[in-house]
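Task: sequence in, structure out. Protein: Diguanylate cyclase.
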Amino acid sequence: MSSYLVNETLAVVEQEIDQFLIDFPRDHPYVMALSLPSFRQQLKAKILSTIPNRHKVRTDEDLEFTSVHDYTGVIEERLVIEERILRTMPDMIDDFRYRVRQEDSGEIIDQDTQTNSHYLNTNWWVRVHTIIPCVTYYFGPFTDQKEASTAYPGYLEDLRAEKAIGIFADIKQDCPRNLTLVDSPADLKQDQQRLWKIYKKIYRQKSILENSYHKLLELLPGNYLIVDCHGKIQDANQNACRLLNTNRESLRGKPFIYYAPQQQISLLENHLENIVKDQSEWQVPYCWSMQLQSLSSISISVDIQATQKRDDNGEINGFYWLLNDITSLATINDQLYYESHHDSLTCLPNRRSLALFLENLHQNVHAGDNYGDQVFALLMLDLNKFKSINDRFGHLFGDKVLQRVAEVLLECVREGDQVARLSGDEFIIVLKSTQSGDDAKKCADRIHRLFSRPLTVEGIQLLVSTSIGVVISNYDQFDYERLIDYADTAMYEAKRNGNLFVVFDDTQPSANGKSHPSPIKNLSLEEGEGI
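Result:
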């Protein structure tokens, strides 16, 4: 049983044209023009190209149109078609009269005079042939080839939406007798032969690809893996085998997670879930970086670029992974990061690292429930009369003194606290958790006790003293720059007054409710170590 795709809107257009002519006498230009098959065909084509068309698949046993009066919205459709006829006819009549005058005056001259009259009535058309159903459609007319080319894709999409199979299309000048032509059995046989040739060609191409994709994989310069949707390795080229220190047979069927260190497994699982869940067409590869562990227990850093692998039905059945070895780059990046966050002379954290440490500390404490009760302290130190050491022994010797001072300061703090060098001979210590201000004072005491003994640098013993400014604060109103400013002020007050250290308490509110620095303990050099 044959099936046909029928344009039901065409029947409505033909009925409306007949209804339109009832109101005009036989000698009216509209009636005379529409008595010409080519003119009538052009009018129908113009109207159909400007309104939605209703198509329906029918069989040999049901070729009659369903009564359009029963179609929902037919009244609105008829009104639209009637309006298109009234608007289109005047322009077509004027164009027709102009062509006739040109032909009568001999202005249009064609070498083939027998086809001259036919050429006058031709326009540009989009001709589309479908194998199932076996029908040829004409869409148009268009004034030029460019206009037809612009509309061309839309007609193909419409037919694909109607589930048409085997679509072939071209653009040509023509004067079709009908807009829809049902092909003959001979045409149908020819279409079947054409489909069979296409099928054999695709089958051969698929076989060639399946037999040679291993060779193609080897020709790729990168480290390539083919991975299924469950993360199992289906295939790999020799570059990837060398990277993972194994062979192709060992890789096939093995989960890629086998090569991920324990701390990287959750990261890999998250990325696998993301790429499988995203069924859309990727415009760029999906990328991430991670550590891998080869069979020789060598840790390598890779940047993975995943692209989708689809089957004949367009469904995702795996992924192509390109593994870029960035181990050396990762090492360089780690080194650059370290250098940008540490002092090159003493290897202590610098000002940037200090700010990051305090910010992370603030965020971690805020994640708890009792952050308002926790207290921390900042101790800023400055070496007294350090300039005289540089002037007497030289800057290289002064640098060695600073390195020795850094070692002493590290002996004065607990694990988890931080010692940083801000600049020159200025250092800062962060006690990240203190019970009270007494912990900060005890740390300042330890520093003074250690510096009360001579430091030995290149065989020379030196007495180095410091001035310390202490700020005690909580995490309720955390402000890095403000705290550094308070510590700096306290340090210079200790230096100016000859004290061992000056403590500012930032946890006590003032009368207006705002925190303020207030000295709570000053120790002079004469007082020694008393608290």
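The radius of gyration is 44 Å.
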